[in-house]
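Our working data are protein records whose layout never changes between entries. An example says more than a description, so a record of this kind follows.
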Amino acid sequence: MHEMGIGKAPQACMSCRKQKRKCSKTLPACDLCQRMNRHCDYSNAAPPPSSDDFNALRQKLMELESRLNGGGMNPQMSPYATPSSTTMPTSDNLGPPVPAYTPPQEVPWQGIQNRFPAIAFLDSDNFKVGGIVVPKPSLEIPVDVLELLGDAGAIQATISEYFATIHKWMPIFSQKRLTRNMANPLWEAGPDLALLFLCMKLIISRPHDGIQSSQHPVYVSAKRFITLLEASGAATLLMLQANILVAWYEYGQAIYPAAYMTAGWCVRYGNMLGINGNKHALDLLGRVGTWTEQEERQRTWWGVLIVNRIVSLGSQSYVLNSQEPKNDDTLPVNEAAWETGEMTAARQALVGSPISEPVTSFPRLCQAIIMMGKVLVHNYGDEIVTETEQFTAASNLYTDASALSRQISEEADAEQDFFGYASAIAVTYSTLCTLCDGYSCPKGTCKSTGKESSSMQIQAIEGLKTVSSTIVNFVNHINANTPLGQDLDRISPIIMDALYSAAANYAWMVRESGDDVYQSSLDNIRLCLRKLGARWRNAAEYLRILEAQEFSYAIGGAS
């Protein structure tokens, strides 16, 4: 008794009681909570209900509902129902299946503690000097998330499909690290890892007819889980990576303004973590322990820059980023070294390296994004220059972007890796279209009306015709490489802007000239967008916009 009074708590902590684990009862924190670096609560309050509690309650509800319905009603399915919950076997005397019990949304908010040190923002100098560590999130994984993820086998299947598809065009995760994390139970690995697995399941999912992508059960659960983690003060790389996947899902499935806002969130969160290369940043993650960890942080920041830039295309509301990569910044290493974790095999190129220096597909995508940034600065920047200087700068940008586009296309052909390089190629096409569009005045919005503008307009229109023709060839490559429906899973939503830009250009050219060749090219792109719409709904939205434009042109021509 005397020993318990000094070094032992009278009962198990709340986390161990919930997980039905043996608790050491040591004060001020039990061994498990100390190892997990989470808050240890020895209060007498009843622990929040576990998944077993909910399953027992579900069974009782099923029996009660069956009695009330007399076995003759077909209850409406819950929007959070999962295969495991909707196919639960029932005895014959219970009537038809009833929807799985969904815990009230208020339950996960009970007992959330935010232990993020406010000093990190109120006085960052003292935060750094004091060596204060940001606690790991201690939030329990919501029941709906656990049910959607399934068992270890289901999670492993999700990871495998993710790395076979999405990872090919957005390789920001270390597969070795994720595999290593799978060795521990999900609740011990942490809620942020559970969120990442959930977002992997989200991004590999396909849209379903009759269900809005914003109402997808996995999407709804992911957004709720993110909000819960934010409330707990979570500051981890895994949470940022998960949100990058959410932003791609929202962009690919045309969920606005959510996609625009999530992309901006990723920029701010990356700045907070200190992975943006700014030596004055908070650096909440601390020092890296391995080369793989350093490379993953860098790739994650590139992922932030890429999604933020792509999501802003077409809205003409691009916010110029003061964190544009500098010439002495490093590009991601080649994919072979990254996948194997072999530092000695890594080829490290710089942002300012000539494009003739060989790099692999993801560094090429980064270079394409940098080139697009230069064009956006040229189009939307406030720098005042003469008309001659402006046109000279535009011509130089067109030459550089065209050279990069040819370089990437040649490498894709040489390596026979169309899917790996498709995103980078498409970004260069979008860049050229964005540059030329501002000078071509197809919509009566010329950048300049001076004496040289007519000559520049002619060059811009010819540039649009050239790049649009090249995009038609790109469309033919897409069709040739996607003979089966599952092949669409390897296509990135990043390519849609380029396809739409070319289609819009051809729609305008058909209106101006009525040329059958232009109409044939337009129809070819429309067919491809319709095909891609089965995987990414932003393709279907672009197609809908095109059809509305053609209707408007037809009405205008008739009048």
